[in-house]
């Protein structure tokens, strides 16, 4: 029976530290601020955005929401990003995905000033991550939160076999770099991977970020492995579930994250923490 990684409790600890840091910065006349840009009415995105806004306000971080209709043009969004880049009260800019089809989200992401790129998606920040540069720069919040969980639960990385399922720029790719920088042996799988189960059974650490409910179950896991479930899937019953069949997997894994209560709360806590990092770096270097 696996130890359950308590993302909620760890997120709470991080949030407490973040609000203390905000109070300290306030005394120096620095008021961290985040802007979230959203286009359209995707209900999940609206919920995520509202949750981020509420959490920021609770921790003392100024939060502004820039909401645009589904038919917004790329130029309108670029003009908004330009304004936010120049706005001294804003330290962090996040563009909520998915964007409507007429928007090339890469162009929008590239327009965010690297100093305010709280999602770590600007190629300059991604480049620093892949080059393993030892300077201050933002890293995608879900991967950074996962690394924090692994550290907190003393999971050895050096020389360990890690399999990541999911190749997205927001989750899989930054994780690949972070784990590679930590000297793990990393394999990345996607939709075209053949014989996925044979591969996952070799993993000391298995990270699943495919967005496919119950893609992985006990039979796909090496006994005693650490299993990190990034997936968030809403079933037709309304129930929230991950990419891992938690009930069977917890019998075989050594450590496992639940959904909800695992990676999700860590992502928001890391977003807040990194907003404060950006404010600190911008004002103090
Ligand atoms: P994405 O759709 O951009 O990428 C999915 C990846 O999974 C692709 O690389 C694809 O090749 C791979 N994939 C899909 N089906 C597969 C299969 N059957 N076998 C192997 N690989 C497969 O998704 P994303 O934005 O990276 O998100 C992935 C999941 O993680 C989603 O459920 C999303 O909601 C969730 N998510 C959660 C958090 C969090 O904070 N918990 C943050 C970001 C994303």
UniProtKB/TrEMBL annotation:
One of its GO terms (molecular function) is methylenetetrahydrofolate dehydrogenase (NADP+) activity. Its EC number is 1.5.1.5, 3.5.4.9. Keywords: Amino-acid biosynthesis, Histidine biosynthesis, Hydrolase, Methionine biosynthesis, Multifunctional enzyme, NADP, One-carbon metabolism, Oxidoreductase, Purine biosynthesis. This is Bifunctional protein FolD. GO terms for cellular component: cytosol. The lineage of its organism: Bacteria, Bacillati, Bacillota, Bacilli, Lactobacillales. One of its GO terms (biological process) is tetrahydrofolate interconversion. The keyword ATP-binding does not apply. NADP(+) binds at residues 166-168, 232. Homodimer. Belongs to the tetrahydrofolate dehydrogenase/cyclohydrolase family.
């Amino acid at each position: 029976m696996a130890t359950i990684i308590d993302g909620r409790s760890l997120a709470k600890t991080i949030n407490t530290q973040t609000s203390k840091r905000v109070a300290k910065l306030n005394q120096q006349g620095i008021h961290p601020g985040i802007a979230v840009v959203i286009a359209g009415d995707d209900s999940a995105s609206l919920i995520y955005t509202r949750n981020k806004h509420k959490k920021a306000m609770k921790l003392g971080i100024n939060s502004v929401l820039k909401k645009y209709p589904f038919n917004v043009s790329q130029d309108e969004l670029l003009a908004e990003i330009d304004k936010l880049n120049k706005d001294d009260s804003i330290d962090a800019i996040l563009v909520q995905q998915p964007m409507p089809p007429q928007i090339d989200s890469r162009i929008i992401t590239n327009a965010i000033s690297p100093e305010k790129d709280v999602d770590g998606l600007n190629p300059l920040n991604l480049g620093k991550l892949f080059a393993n540069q030892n300077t201050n720069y933002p890293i995608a919040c879900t991967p950074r939160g996962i690394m924090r969980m692994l550290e907190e639960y003393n999971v050895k990385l050096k020389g360990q076999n890690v399999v990541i399922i999911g190749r997205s720029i927001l989750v899989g790719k930054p994780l690949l770099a972070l784990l590679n920088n930590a000297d793990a042996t990393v394999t990345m799988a996607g939709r075209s991977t053949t014989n996925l189960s044979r591969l996952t059974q070799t993993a000391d650490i298995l990270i699943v970020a495919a967005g496919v409910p119950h893609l992985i179950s006990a039979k796909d896991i090496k006994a005693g492995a650490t299993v990190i479930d990034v997936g968030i899937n809403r079933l037709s019953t309304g129930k929230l579930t991950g990419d891992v069949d938690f009930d069977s997997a917890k019998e075989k894994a050594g450590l496992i994250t639940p959904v909800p209560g695992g990676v999700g709360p860590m992502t928001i806590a890391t977003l807040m923490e990194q907003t404060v990092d950006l404010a600190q770096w911008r004002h103090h270097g």
